[in-house]
Each structure stands twice: as structure tokens, then as C-alpha cells.
Amino acid sequence: MGWKRQHGAPGLGRKSVTLPILGGRLMMLDLEEKDSGGKVCHSRTFCRRRLIFFDFAVSWPPASVPPTPPPTASVTHPAYKPTPGSLLFFGIHVLAILAFFVKPDPLALILCAGLFLVRKFGITGGYHRYFSHRSFKTSRWFQFVLAWLGGMAAQKGALWWAAHHRHHHQHSDQPDDIHSVKQQGFYWAHVGWILAPDYEDYDSKRVKDLTKYPELVWINKYHFIPPMVLALTCYLVAGLPGFLWGFCLSTVILYHTTFAINSFCHLLGKRRYETGESSRNSFILAILTLGEGWHNNHHYYPHCARQGFFWWEFDPTYYVLRLLRLVGIVHSIKEPSKRVLEGKEATAALG
Is residue 74 part of a domain? Predict the structure, then answer.
């Protein structure tokens, strides 16, 4: 589609644009009458300034319309099929809504907030920064603690989570990316891919550094055990309010704050670095996700334990890791170098 200059009667200039529709054409003409000196008239006393009309013709079959090319994306949207996992996912959302019809006592509220923060660190510090990117080192026993804490968030096992996340970084916003807003849209990036039966399994070759630990393989296989134990504990400690508020509601909040990084953080916010994909930094999501909202920073230098690169970028996960280093639980925390901060060095390595 484009404008082209045509000439008709003397003193008459014409611009036209032609749009192909169903094998026909939609032509809009803009006529301007000129005076004897070649200038466009602007006074109504000399001419009618503009005349616009449409010429629309349709031919059938629409031979001029090229056939639709096959989709290039490697990731498909399989039809939703109920699975035990998806039914539990929707069920816990129903229970989270029911929580608002049960008056919480102070203990239930403490459980809701406390378990959100503890399990969120299990995702951000454990599943993400440790298992997915190996951005710090720790002992074998604390490695299992991180796997258990993340497992209590009911987001499957550490090996499943890390394998899919590493795949995402390798193919971010490309046809093979399994949760790209750019490729598959908001719903799919936010939650659709998780419910799809095609992604129940994971590629163990992507996490060979983790599968050598049998305890991690075990907890990944039986990933339903940590959340079940937690749910039962909440009920035994604080009754029905403890179960609905402490476990169900906080779990749903955990879900969608985690998923928001895959969806909202590729749509809203600011970009400091050019990364070849759509990641953005969001202060609001950084607050809600213990520092994960600095997503553009993260995609620029993924294997760094610190995602808030500057002191004003709120990153509680990094602060906790610093405290754990002080007491000797973790070590070798990877920091961004000066060249990284200045945007002179980037890497897509997973660490």
C-alpha cells in the first residue's frame, strides 16, 4: 500500500491509495484543484477544495490474495485437556476465592504473608537464581532446602522449572520460546503454556548439572509432596482459615506474581539494555516478586545473582543471599561487573 502522484486534467492533481480486499480494490482519491499559477486553491470562492470518493470492486474467487503461509512458530497451542494438575490449579483458585468468605484470625494472616515471602524466595532465590542460572554456590543440604522451599509454591519441581527456564533464555521471543508474549500472546505467556499437557515433561539434557543429584530427581518426580505437606500443616496449625488464607490464597498470589514476569515484564516497563527480545524493568513487579521485576537487567546478564544492578533497584532476594553469605550458607555470589553496568558487556550464558 502506498500513495502515488497521478495527473489528470490540467490544473488537477490527484493522490490515490489502493487497498486489496478480497481480490478487489478499495481506492481513495484525493483531488485538489489548482489555479492558473499551479498553486493549490485554499479559498472556497475559487474552488471546491477536496473531493473524496471510493471505487470498490470485488471479484470471486479472490485469486489476487496470496495463500496464507504456514505458521513459522515451533510452539503450538494444544487444545486444553483436563489433567490432575490443571484441575488442582483451578480448584485452588476457587478455594482462594472462598477464603474471602471465611474471616481470618491473626494467625491465618501471618501464615498468608509469611508463607508467601518464604515460598517466593524459594522460587526467586532457589528455582530461578540458583537452579536455573547457578548464580551462586551452596552446600548440598541447602540445595535440597531450596528445592523444598520452591516446591512448596506448587510450581512443580526444580528440574522441570530450571529446564524450561533455560530453554526460554535460549529462545527468548523466538518461535521456539514456549512462553513468549510476542509469539503467542498474553494469556499463553502468563498461564496457558503451564496448563498445556504438552509441557508436563522436561528435557533432562538441559539440567545435566542437576540430575546427578538423586535427591533433586526424587523431589522433582514427587513434586506434589512439599505443597501437600504444607497445606496439611496450615490446617492443623490454624484450622480452615489457616488452610484457605495461609495456603490457598497465598499460593494463588505466588502463581500470578511469578507468571507476571513472563507476561507483564515483556510488555510494561522500561528498557535499559538492548537484548534482542522484549524484556523490561518494572519497579512495581520488583516489589511484588522480591526483585524479579528487573527483567531487562536479567536478560542482559542472566547468570548474575543480583538483578537490581544499582542501589536504588529494590532486590530483596539479593539482600537475603548476602545475609546467607555472611553466615556461611552460600558463597561465590556472581555480581555484575562495571562493564556490565555500563552496557559494554552482555551474555546469554546460563552460568
Answer: no
DSSP labels for 221-290? HTTTHHHHHHHHHHHHHHHHHIIIIIIIIHHHHHHHHHHHHHHGGGTSSB-SS--SS---B-HHHHHHTT
- Total-model pTM: 0.77
Beta strands in the chain (DSSP E): 4-7, 12-21, 24-33, 51-57, 137-138, 330-331
> How many folded domains does the chain comprise?
2
State the Cα–Cα distance between residues 126 and 142, nearest whole angstrom: 10
Closest by alpha carbon to 129, among 270, 332, 340? 332
Do 225 and 112 reside in the same domain of the chain? yes
Q: Are residues 97 and 31 in the same domain?
A: no
Residue 346 lies inside a defined structural domain of this protein? no
Whether 121 and 158 map to the same domain: the answer is yes
Provide the domain limits for residue 48: 4-57
Max intra-chain CA distance, the chain: 94
The pLDDT tens digits for 214-248 are 999 999 999 999 999 999 999 999 999 999 999 99
